Amino acid sequence: MPSRRDILKAGLVVPIALAAPAILARPARAQAALRIQGFLAAASPTHRAFEAMAARLAERSGGALTIQTLPAGSVVGPAETIDAVGAGILDGHYSSSSFFAARNPAFIVYGDTGASYDDVATRDRWYSEGDGEALGRELYDGYDMHYVANVFWPSEHIPATKALNGVADLQNLKIRVPPGMISEIFGMAGAAVVNLPGGEVFNALQSGVIDATDWASPGQNEEVGLYRVAKFSVNAAHSMPATEIALSKRAWDGLSDEHRAMLEEEIRAMSAGLREQVSADDAAAIEKIRGEGVTIIEWPAEEVAKLRGLTSRKQDEIAGRDPLAAKIVASHRAFQEKVGI
């Protein structure tokens, strides 16, 4: 996943004047206008889906429930949205828990499940069939926020200049990974982890400063041009970030039951739409880059299992730092057992 520095270097919008949210009382048709900041640029598929969701919500509510969808960096940086929500500058955020890892270790294990699952579809069942949603609410409760629902984010591929067929090939690999759990897991595998700003990644791959980079899914990797120099796209199931929409409790409590239900339903519809769109974009990108000489490498189950073992060791270490982090890790382990992983 792009780091917060990558996001802020992507040419985002000029800061918007701050205005207090206009949230009224609880009757079913009370007016509610929410200011929610996202974590990607205005032109990104995810932010466009966010805008479309807000438009549907406004139409469905007859204009009684509206969202001002602010791109990343409009008001504050991605790691500061919790503070802006607490100060009443924002009513909520569409973000990833990974951005808040410095606040609580629980955000680390909630924000990216690494190689814990075979695919995102299985992991996302944890929210509805397991404790994922409830634990998200418990996590955000400590920051006077209400976790509304998770939003789809795809499994990521590694653009590389050399073939990476398994964990052994990570030894001494020069790979750019933003600081966090995934970078530490690669370090455990023997990789030489490098932290570079997103704007330097292309040149670093081209010059050989790095051999590979953690970035995003094939469609997004192709869009930013990484496969022009990285002729291998490696699906190691190494990173499965989580994204979600959360509101201040003040904003959530100010919504009518009808508006709460509408918001939850529209976020879930947005997530389903993103799953379909991103999957189509990734399939198209894979076909395109194959035609341009890029080799797609799918790690076999036994290699993913090795990376999963490293992920579990790192999760156990993080779980020892905080009771809620331990609770989240235990919940994932129970769900993995339930689905046969």
UniProtKB/TrEMBL annotation:
Superkingdom, taxonomy of origin: Bacteria
Annotated keywords: Signal
Biological processes annotated in GO: transmembrane transport
This protein's record includes keyword Signal: yes
Coiled coil (residue ranges): none
InterPro entries: DctP_fam (IPR018389), TAT_signal (IPR006311), TRAP_DctP_sf (IPR038404)
Annotated PANTHER family: EXTRACYTOPLASMIC SOLUTE RECEPTOR PROTEIN (PTHR33376:SF5), PTHR33376
Protein name as it appears in the record: Lactate-binding periplasmic protein
